[in-house]
Amino acid sequence: MPAQKNEKRKITGSIWKTEKCMYEEFGIEEPDPFNTDLDTLAEVYAEMRNAFARKYPDLCPEGPVHKPVYSIPQYDGRTVCSVAYGAQRPVWDGRTRSYWHDRSYVPWAWVETVKDVSSIKVPDWSSIPMVQENIKKYEEVRSKTKYTLEANTRIQWSELRFTHPYTKKSYAFNTTMSFVDLGAFLFGDTRFLETSLSDVDLTKALMEKCFEVTVSYRDYVNKMYGLKVKGMASFGGDYSFMFSPDMYREYAMAYDAMRVERYGDLPCNLHSCGASSHLYEIWGTYPNKDNIVLMQTRGIEGKLKELRSSLPNTFLQITIHQPQFDFEEESVENIVKLVWHYAEEAGFKDLHLTVIVSKTNDDVERNIRAFYKVIDEVNEHALSQ
Predict the structure, then answer these.
(1) What element of type H or E holds 2?
(2) Hey, where are the domains in the chain?
(3) Which of 14, 72, 124, 303 is 20 to 30 A from 312, alpha carbon to alpha carbon?
């Protein structure tokens, strides 16, 4: 993950190596953040960033410049809500270096009717141990003095921060859980999707209940952390790509509209993990689309122009990944073509390309260098226009 050059850049790019790669190449394993000394945690995160710079000095002319800074470990709000309604606590998975919880337990599996939904009570967040553990970590970090808490360091799972690489304008988004994600966590993946297709009344009741839970949780966290809602993350959601346009309009956009009504028409972040070209047109019909300043989705060759047309002023973070494009197995020629193609379709502006790498071999290293080289070439072109 090399540092970007200091000059303004119209197009940016990054390589994200998986936990497996970081361990195999650099011997770095991310520890459980809730059971690791915060000084050690800051040092490990800095070493992760600097290891790349030492391996690729030609790609990182500034060198290994990252100093340890404190981040604030937090449990994901969707997991907190699941546990609050009876799910098992998440466990640290050393293979993926992340928290996982048992999704076989469905907290709202007993719900059958709209009346059942209306009987669900919002938790008393002050009595939920995981919430209090989050707050304790926040307070612990604020009391530490060995390293600094950078202004741009986010409170994980509570704030998403973004600085535009060209304008340098910064945004802070409160992460307010999306219905398409929280609904699946609480109602069960398969049943949630089946119900969204077959029972509009029950699904809308779930949507309104999820909104009530989300607002309650978000307002409690903001009060405890002294955060103000200056922007909203999690428009759409991880599961958005599994919705048809009609389903997205019926539920995801309606849920987002409730958030705008509750917090105001603020800058926001839009997200959909998987291939989502079937949603590009509908994204362009968001009433507040001028305030969608950032979004993340999967790259699909030949489709980015449609996304740019729908969101002409949004900074696009596009992930290059299988099965749409196998970076690790592709030729340098095709990688160069793809980057130029995406840059052109995005209008040579407001674009970040992310590649996730899980293998370590000579061909992959060759492709990484080709990727960063073509990003530089594209910027030379874009900045000369």
Answers:
(1) none
(2) 97-139+154-311
(3) 14
Is residue 258's pLDDT more than 50?
yes
Return the SS3 of 267: coil
Write the DSSP string, 15-52.
Answer: EEE-HHHHHHHH------GGGS-HHHHHHHHHHHHHHH
CA distance 294 to 167: 13
Q: What is the model's pTM?
A: 0.91
Are the C-beta atoms of residues 207 and 253 closer than 8 Å to each other?
no
Quick one: average pLDDT of 49-56? 84
DSSP one-letter string for 110-125: T--SHHHHHTPPPP-G
Q: Which amino acid is at 172?
A: A
Lowest-pLDDT range of 91-95, 148-152, 226-230, 261-265: 148-152
What is the spatial distance between Cα 140 and Cα 34, in angstroms, rounded to a whole number? 11
Burial zone of 223 (CB within 10 Å; 0-12 exposed, 13-18 middle, 19+ buried): exposed
Listed in sequence order, the DSSP H helices in the chain are 19-26, 38-55, 77-84, 114-118, 129-143, 179-187, 189-198, 200-225, 245-247, 253-263, 280-283, 304-310, 332-345, 362-384
| Residue 149: C-alpha distances to residues 70, 136, 241 (Å) | 5, 16, 35
For residues 4 and 165, is the Cβ–Cβ distance under 8 A? yes
SS3 call for 197: helix
Name the packing angle between helices 179-187 and 77-84 (round to 10°).
30
CA distance 120 to 127: 17
Consecutive H or E run containing 163: strand 159-163
Burial of 175 (0-12, 13-18, 19+ CB in 10 A): buried
Q: How many CA atoms lie within 13 A of 197 on its CB side?
A: 8
